[in-house]
Write a structure and sequence with these properties.
Layout lengths: L9 E5 L3 H11 L4 E5 L2 H10 L3 E7 L7 H9 L4 H4 L3 E5 L5 H9 L4 E4 L4 H23 L12 H18 L3 E8 L2 H27 L5 E4 L4 E7 L3 H16 L2 E3 L4 E3 L2 E6 L9 H17 L5 E3 L12 H20 L8 H30 L1
Parallel strand pairs: 1-2, 1-3, 3-4, 4-5, 11-12
Antiparallel strand pairs: 6-8, 6-11, 7-8, 9-10
Length: 374
Amino acid sequence: MGEQSSQKPEILIVDDSKVIRKAATKMLGDGYVIHEAVDGRDGWQQIQQNSAISVVFSDMQMPVMDGMELLNSVRSADDERIAGLPVIMITGQGDTEETKRQVFEAGATDFISKPFSSIDLLTRAKSYAQFNSQVVELEKQTGHDKLTGLFNARSLEEQGDKALSFAARHGVSISAVYLEIDNFQDIFLSHGKSVATQIIIAVSKRFDAVLRTEDVAARIGVSKYALLLPLTGHTHAKIVVDRVREAINKLVFDTGKEKIRIVLAAGMTSPEVTEEMRFADIMHEAESALKRALSKVGEKVASYVEAQPVQEKETLEDAAANIDQDLQHAFKLILEGDFFKIERTHLKPLVDRLLLFIEYVENQDNLTTDKVSE
């Protein structure tokens, strides 16, 4: 999600030395939010989970996953935000010039040598954090994820703000869903970028096949997606989630050595809309539900309100009634000449209704013509 410019930039320090991590945190702590990782794998997980990280400082020599492996993971990421992160490598006396050259060719943004001074660290942190924020802002303005063609996180926020405002104004329902490919990191590490990319694109294409025109699908992480469902309460949202998961969980990818089956986890929320509510609050609920879904064994679906009340507040009939009420309001606007005030989300269902009426009128005209000719 978008960060406010007044917030401190967030920096990740990846080093197996606690002394180095604490020294860097002390030097940068006043002006930045510092995250620490004990090795490359820990750092890679944090980079994928935290979209606010703007600069990475990484040691070269580490257990589990070293600096070169972490750098390769970052630069080969399908998420353009991650692939473009500034990565400053922390070199030691044991690192040769040849090693530094190889790391630079692999995409390292810069180097800093141990023992480093606060000036060295602060200079690089400031310059690269500012540069990265400018790049991210330019990418946000495009509106779409380049790999999949789905909306990006910024566009999702914009669409969500509008849909929530409409829901609050007219007293109608809205739902949001977070979706993630389960164990995607294991797939990436085992089968490589090419297979991982094919999976991401294939999953994205399935959304178009099963969603309504007024629904919004966005890619908000490497293997994470979000759905915005206007005019949709809990009952109907659950039907949409089941339909999406059924379509995507059928996907099977044959690598030649083994077949990969996709499991999509889903966290959903259908909040009681209020005037004070923000769309970020709704997405936070959906993300919280997704975390519970990912931790489940078996059916990986969770709602923000885990246990629904005995008498559910909304049935399918209620949802249909809400939609009909909104369409009646849209027809009223047409008759009053204020059709430009009709919400975009209502245009498709409105046209569908009108087409049925037009077909009826044409049939009546044909009947009249037949009678005259007789």
